[in-house]
Amino acid sequence: MASTEGDPIKFFDLDGQHRPYSPMTCFVLNYKQLSYRTEWIPFADVAKTMKQNHVLPTMETEPFYTVPAIIDNSNVQSGREPMIVCDSLAIARYLDETYPDHPIYIPLGRELVELHMQEIVALRRAFIHICVAHTSRLLEDRHKEAFITTRTKYFGVHPDDLFAPDRQEATWKAVYDGLGRLSDYIESLETYRPGAAFPFGGDAPCYADFALCAALIWFQKCSPEGAWEKIKDLNGEKWERLRKNCEPYSQVL
Hints:
By secondary structure, the chain is of the alpha+beta class. Helix content is 50%, strand content 8%. Strands 2-1-3-4 form a four-stranded mixed sheet. α4 packs across α5 (141-155) and α4 runs antiparallel to α6.
């Protein structure tokens, strides 16, 4: 839907291509046809902006504060406080409970969502060294400095070292193995249909489809040139098919 100053939902997103999680929330907002406006946050300003808007930290270690987050002001006119929600999974659950049209999370049930997410998180772990190493090359000035500082503390090494030449063969093997395991998991589901638009949801997307697509987009945008081409058509072309079918829900307003 078109965004205006009067939109009840404010969506906090990273300014740039390095958006590992916020596309999930963007997909859900658009799929549910909710009116919202986006506040773009430069990387180095995430913590400051979250604190200013009373958003809670999502991590126990640095960088502590992450995006996405939303502030829903839909109840303010009735005298209630704005609803502040952070973490993409919590946001999806909240939006389904508050705006039940076009459900994306609730129909699956918590247990099934958690099972699907375990598999998707495992794939993210396979992607992470490539994506973090390349993200440091996409940023500039204080944003690059902040990224390198926080990620060096988190990983214990400089981001560039995560995908150093002597680690690349093993890292690529982890990526191919991770995609293969996820493909096998998807094909083991009773709901799976070969060639379906969405690997988890079939004809219509569910939250797991959006979570997986966000991971794939992260890899596409934050990996070296040619990396996406190496994987997009693997495993029966599931990954490129999903990415294309999520495009109608990808425009950030």
